[in-house]
Each structure stands twice: as structure tokens, then as C-alpha cells.
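User: Cytochrome P450 2U1, Biomphalaria pfeifferi:
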Amino acid sequence: MMELICVITALLITSKSLSAYDNILHKETGVQFTAAKKNLYAVRNVNKINSKESKVSDGSIQATIFKDKSFRQKGVNDGPLHDQNTETHNMHSVKSLSSEGTMFQLKFSEWKGSDIFDKDGNCSVVIGCTDLYHSDSCLVCRCSENSTITTIADCTNANLDQVPTQLPSSISHLLLAYNRLNSSSLYPGVFDKYTDLEVLQLDSNNITTLADGVFRGLYKLERLNVYNNSIAMDSNLNKSRVFAPLNGSLVYLVMNRNNPNTSNPNLVYPDYALSLLTNLKTLYIDGLRGKRFGPLFGSLKYLTKLVISGYDQGYCFLESLHNDTFKYLGHLKDLNISNCGLEGSLVESGAFAPLNKLTVLDLTNNFYLGLEVIGNLMYGLRNSQTLRRLKIQRVVPRFSPCILILTKTLRYFRNMSLEIIEAMDNEIEMIEFGALKMLPATLKTVNLTNNKIMFGAYWKNMGELFSLENLHLDGFFKPVQFPLVFPDSSFKCVSPSEGHGKFTDNGCICNYNSFSEYQTDFMLPLPPMLRNVTMHSNSMTYIINNITFCSNNKLDYVDLTKNHFQALQGPVIGLKYLRVLKMSSCFIESISDKFFDNLTSLEHLNLYQNLLGDCLNADLKGLIFDKLTHMEAIDISFNNLYRLNENAFGSMENLLTLDLSINRLSQVNFSIAQMKRLQFIDLHRNEIASLPEGIRSHISWLLSRGVNITIDMRQNPIECDCGNLDFLQWVVDTKVFGSNYSYYYCKFPIANAPALEMKNGYDEQVAMLSYSCGKHIIMFLSVAGGTLLMILVLIAALIYRFRWTLRYWYHAAKSKMSSTREVDVKDFKYDVFVSYANSDIDFILQELIPKMKERGLKVLVHGEKFKVGRHITDNIYKAVVKSRKTLIVITKHMLDSHWCKYELQMARMQSISTGRDVLVFLFLEDIPSSKLGPEVLAHVKSSTYINYPKLPQHKGAFWDKLADDLRSS
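Assistant: Predicted structure for Cytochrome P450 2U1:
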């Protein structure tokens, strides 16, 4: 239990960042030191600063990650093996366990050196004891066989007013920032015990003076930080020998933010005191108004970096620079005089002339310096072959109008060896034609972010920047804030030179042929080595039509994010090496089929947050992206997509990542069968309930080939019902959703039922559905079978009920489809078609036919003139429709004849279809109504009928009457 308490106490040392100079020290050494706000000090062990194994996380010191990930934890009693990663996690997680506002008296157990080393003599030590958790056994030892051990005593923010003396003498880092140390606390010899110190942090205390002898014995000290105290750079400091003990070791000194009144005439740069530090390489110091760096700075031959920056880093208000300000700093390579209130009118052009070894110059945030003065300042460096980087961000007041880059501004740049120019936030609107020719041929990167540069004639000179690789023309990333003081009336607008903004007549942009100002088909030049162009948030509003670039370019990366390109018409020609194109948040509504036709080398396309829903829905043949055969990653998320056609990505055989998230897709209709390398599909935040079998089969195939493919379907309404069981089972089997199921849901087939989050995956849901759906299958099949049977019975009943109607219309349709017609149905070929039973053939042949022919009637009887080979039903139908009347001879034999009944029904349907009285019934026998049957009786009642007379004298009148009835229409 006690060991656990000690471990917890040791974890209390993580905390918020110390100060701005913690960041500075981090940049210089690779380590950042922090501590908990109300804790006392602890000794913590990490690798040496230069160790490649050390790893730093934001705002907190992180325990060393060794190559051997197992650690041995030892104290007075041996502890178990302890996992390094777990320890690191805990150090980040536990911010503070002490009571807020409670201070503990500093107490340490006796140092037991024999208990903290392993058999090989290697050990890391963490001590974190307060009087609340104090114990004699409060030692935590973490060992590694293959690491160089550095012991750090972190006493930051511990409310100390004295330097602790109980620490082990072997510590190499002592961190005392954010305490209450004062000049009395730092008496001579106070650090005598700690002769192995390499780093000492005394920043953010109450120190006003540094007594001679305070650093006595610190012959190994390499870095000293006294930032943010009140140590005056006056004559007393300059005459002192306080830094003498550090003569051979100190290389890094931070002593700025100590003199807020930089205009105090009694302040001087302490050249004598600092001259004792003969190995000093880096110096942070406050900038004094009107003061020069004295001649003794000339003895600091290793001083290569000087930072006299103001604002958040220190105090600086130089206001002026003179030709002799840096006269004795000829060894400088890195000079930072940012935020120093330089006035353009008080800066002499030869101020940087002595700095003939300078490689980096930072003039950032000198708002009233001005670009013209920057150009003049380059006079002293006009032939410099060492200066590589120039930082001139924000050297004009915000909202200044008419800021131009003129040829004369760059007149001293031509012969320099500059590689990087950073000129962000300078309100630049235009570059004079010809000005770019003055830039050095060595220039590789130009950053003009947050300016207002418009396209102009200067672009004709872009091809002459032969070494330029990176061009940044980004706009405002953040909302612009109005200044506290608006530019005063003394700021003058510079007029452009004559001809500014126009193309000259001497040559086309690419091949120097004739060129017209009104020409629209010219080719735009690009620097031949240019690889990266960013024009993010640049307020461009264009419909991109056909654009042709000179082909001698190597442009690889273009970022046009957050502009306004409503339509991409194209084609864009000449960018044959372009691999990455970012056009997210550009309000794009349409892309033509030819826009990407000449951008065939594209591998990464980002179209996030546009308006391409209708455009891609209308791309039925997949022509928009069909030339992008090398595409590896495409992002069309947040585009209001509601449907994609099957061939939307038909040519993307090399695609690795497909992002369609945050859209309105309800189905996955597009094909991925051609994607043999696909690794990730992002579909999260859509309306997709399932994936189709084709998509699932291809993904399973990829998995079988060892492709580690995953799908993100978070925040989709995935249906958890029997109909979707196959998909859910596939998800469980393939694990394509990964292991984190946060924001995965089940949508149940119950009205208004809330979706249930599946944080533990779909395994349980699949098991439940498999059981319940299996029981329902039998019930479903039974119900389905019964329903089908009922439907079949109903259909059969309807067919039987309307069998004659169906038969008639069948023959009618068949007749109409026939290629030939024997007669026009309006000109009947016969007056009567006689339907009779074969048993009554004698009456038909001996009496009926002769009597009808005697009276001029054309008679067709059943079987007579029926075409051979034609089905009898077709012959009957033809006979009925070619005859004006159909005479049904009713006898007992007829009532038993199938074909007579068939002829009767065909005649009946002909009567209904044509609206004519077609049927005539002849009763040869007296047959009771009960014997006729319901169908024949119904036809008889609605049609003409006549009885055959029994007396011979009545037969003449009978035949006349029958003939008349058959002639009538």
C-alpha cells in the first residue's frame, strides 16, 4: 500500500506549462518541463536531452520511452515489473491529487543510493514525497539496461523561497521556476552541492540581483534561464563577475523580460559580464532603446544566435537601428529583433552590414517599419551569400491601403542567396511587373499568406523564379480584428509605376511570340521547380474555364481550399505532374466531364464541403472522374450527396481511401469491384441501413487477399431486423467496422422506436435475430403459402367466371395480330353461321340449308370451309365474326355438345363487343327451361328465338320469318 501511495505521489509532478521560456528551452533542447500547481518538488528521470528515445507531449514532461519496454521498479522493497507505457499514461492523466490551496512542508527521506541502482548500475529515480504521503520507503526506481540516465529535479511551482539542499548531488537538471526565490535566496555557494548540474531554471521568481559566486562550482552548467525576473541590466551587472564560473561551459543564456523600461538611460548591454562566457552560443536579452552592443561582444566568437524580441518573449523597444548597432556581432548567424517597435524613418540602411555570416533574420511585427525600408535594409546584405531566411511578417499596419511590391523595393535582393522569404500579413495588393526579376535565383519558398494579392501582369515573370519550390498565397485564416489605432494620416499611398498592371507587347508568356493585351488563350508560366502552391482562403471567386499552363513545370501540390469556384468547366492543361488537389469548402456546384481530363496524375483529391449532390447524381456514365486512374484518395464528404451512379468511380483501380461521409446517401449504388487496393471507406453520418451483396462480396474478397480494409458507418440507421440479418452477420464475421463501436446504432422496425447504440458491437444482436428469425421462417412460409394458395384459388375462380370473355378477347387479339385478314368485318361474308350438334346433321342439310338458300341467304355451317391446320377455336371465332348472325339450333343433343356451347359463347361475346343482336335461337324440340341450364337460358331470354312448327302448313311462314330475322342487322 505504501509503495502505491508513493507512486501516486510521484505522478503529481505533471502540470501546466511553466512559461514562455519553457517553450524556448524546449525548442533548444528538445525537452519541455512542467509541474503541478500546488505540489512540492520531485526528482524525475528521463533520458539525456539529446537521446533519440526521449519523447515530449504537449504541456507535460513524458517519461522516457526506451527501446526495452519493460522496466524494473525497485525501492527499499522490490516491486513488480512495471509497463512503461502505462506509467507514461498515468503521468499524463493524473493532474493533481493534492487539496487545492494546501501547501505541504518539504520533507525527504534519507537518500539511500544503494537502493536505487540495478545490478548494472543503471537506474531512473522519481521522488515525490510531501508530509502528507511521507515515508522512509518512498523511493520509486525504474531501470533500463540500455539507457543513459539523466536525473531531473523538478521543483517548479512549489512555493519555495529557498533552494532545496536535500536533493541528491548527482542531479543534472534543477528546475526552480515559478517559486518565490529572491536575491537573498541566491547567496554565494548556494549550488555548491550540485556540481553535476547541466541545466538550471530560475525563471519567473523575484530575483533582482545576481551576487558574485552564486554560480560557483557549476562547471558543467550548459543552460541557464533567469527569464521573467527583475534583474536590471545596469552598470552593476555589467561590472560583476557573476558569470565567471560558467566561462567554459555555458552555451545557452536566457535573461530577457527583466527590464520593462527599455528607455531607461542607465541601462546598458552587459558586454563585460557576458564577455566572460567565451563559449556562449545563444543569448536572449531585452532590447534597449538607442543602445549599441559594446566592443566586448566581439570576444563572443561562438555567439551565433541573438534574440532581443519583445511582446510575448521579452521587453524590446529599439525604435531605431544604426549602422554600428551590431558592429561587434559579426559572428551572428541568427538574429531575431521582432516586436521591437522599429520606425522606418529611424533605421539606417547599413545596420546589418557587419553581419556577414547571418543566415536567419527575423523582423516580424515591427508594424511601422514598412516594405520600402525593408528593401533599403537589404543594402547592407546585398551581396550576402549566407542569408537563407528572411522573416518580415506584419511590417506594415493592418488595413493599410495600396501596398505594392515595386521593383525598387527588391533592388538589393538580386545577388543574395536567400532561400526563404516570409512576408505574411502585410496587406500586399499587387506586384509591379518586372519586380519578380529582382528576386535571387536561389529562392525556394515564398510565403505571402494573409495578403490581398490579385492576379496581374507580374505573373508573366513567374517563370523566371527558377529555384522556387513553394509558393503560399493563402488568405485570412481567422476573422480580421479591427486595430486599436487606425493608420494615421502620415501613411501615404504609393502610386504604381507607369504601365503597372498591364502586359507588355514584347512576347507571349511562354514562348515569347507576339502577345496581345486582349488575348485569352495565352499560357500561364510557372516556376520550373515549383512543387507546392497554396491559395487557401484567398477570396477568389471564379468559374474555372479552360486554363493552360506552360508545360515545363513540376507542380505537385495545390491547395485552393475556402475560395468560391461555383463551376469547374476546364479543361486545365499543362499540370501533368499534379498529384494533390484540394478544393474543399469552395461552393462548387458543378464539374464538367472534361475538367479532369488532363489531370491524369492526380492521386489525392479533396472536395470536402461543396455542393455536388445534383452534379454527381446526373453523372450517369461516370464521366467526371473517369480519367483519374491513379487516384489513391478522394474526399467528397459533406456535399449533399443523395445518389451516386454505378460507374461514379469506375476508373479508380488504385483507390485506397474513399470518403463519402456526412451526406444523405441512403443506398450504396456505386461499384467498387475495380478497386483492388481499397483500404478504407468512410460512410459515417449518412442514411445507409445496409450494404448490398456486391459491395460485401468484394470487401470479403479483399480481406481474403490480405488487404486490411475497414469501413466507417458510424451514425447511420443500420437496420436490426430479419431482413438485414445477412449484413449484420457479415459485419460480425469480417470485423470491417474495427473494434470501436461508438456511435454505431441499431434501428428497429418498430414505429417511433429510438435507435440503440451498439457500443459492444453487433454480436449479441445477431445472436438474438438468428434465433427469432429462425422461428419466424416457418410461420412466414406457412402464411406465405396459404396466402399464395388463396390468391391462386381466387384467380382460378375469376378465370372460370370470365372464361368466355377471356377466350373471345384472346381470339380477337390473335386475329388483329394476324398478318392477313380474310374479310373486312363490316362487310359480312355470310348472312348466318349455323351452330348445331352432329346428331342433327340431317335436319341441317336437308331442310335448313336449302330453305335459307332459296331465300337468298349465304349460309356457313359448323365444319364447312374451316381451314385445315387452324385450331378449331380459331375457326369458330372466324366463322362468328364473318357472319351477320349466328343461328343456334337448340336440341337435346346440342345441349350436350361442348363445341356448340363454345360457338354460343363466342357469338354472345361478339354481340357484347359489337353491340349488335348476333344470336338467333331455333328450337327444334320442346325443352323445359330447367333443362336448358342457366347460361343458355340467360342467352335465350336476351336474344331472338323461334320455335320449329309442328304442322306442315306453318312451315312456309316459319322459313320466311327466320330468313327475315337472319337478314336484319
